[in-house]
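SAMPLE LOG
Freezer: B-3
Tube label: C17
Construct: single chain, 323 aa
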Amino acid sequence: MSRKQLARVVLGMTFMIILVGAAAALATTEQAAAVPAAANSSLPWWAWPAILFVVTFVLGIVAVLGGVGGGVLFVPIIGGFFPFHLDFVRGAGLLVALAGALAAGPGLLKKGMADLRLALPVALIASSCAIVGAMIGLALPTKVVQTALGATILGIVAIMLMAKKSEYPEVKQADNLSTSLRISGIYHEVSTGQDINWKIHRTPQGLATFILIGVMAGMFGLGAGWANVPVLNLMMGAPLKVSVATSKFLLSITDTSAAWIYINNGAVLPMMVVPSIIGIMLGSIVGVRILTRTKPAAIRYMVIGLLSFAGLRALLKGLEIWN
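STRUCTURE (predicted):
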């Protein structure tokens, strides 16, 4: 399949997701009662979609640079500052992360930054487990999910802060599994002008970790990008930019499974999903252009800062609900 054909397929899938999500939400009109705060707002009806578009456009740029997916920022920020029920936010968050990945994926593959051999084994495991996680998330009380969401994101921040050197991890020897799967490669670092040869290790441990990542991603509606980067980079030893790009591409596979669970249960609203997906797609396209010229260290600190803010907000929101 040529690159142009791949791009057409990706765009077609994206628009299909938008139409399906909108149709599912329109079919469940009684769910509008779940967002009384939005209905009683003094703002006109079109203000919320407009604000969502602007916010998600910015999140789309940042998500590509951080490789965390739009969902990991979308869910705590929209859930904390917008008058929507968390179930609808999580459903929209998965579709947002999926749309951003579909928009950014072709560009990352074209630039040789996302690696298919690294992505496919991980995607198979995480996407299967994300289905289970989505079912668990819809069954749990909102306060439990909100509190666990904040604690999980802050835990990821702590792991990244403890890693002193993660831009180019030192892998002395590839393990047998990664060698058998031929997971290795070369990418050109534009910021330094060097060609980086990379390989990975601890592949069995990394693949086992993605079982937990898939469950938690589906449960929180975040997508899997929030944990993909630390595991690929810190545990398995892939360079930071390869981890970021591969993580973004992974979301187009893993988020699809969990997203259908939320759509099937009617946990989407067109007023949220449509402007958010359009904003995240446009932002992701801009983010891909910026990523190749951004230094790896700058990406790391940006991810840490944004995840800290989003995790703290989600945790405080969850504690408020408990009280």
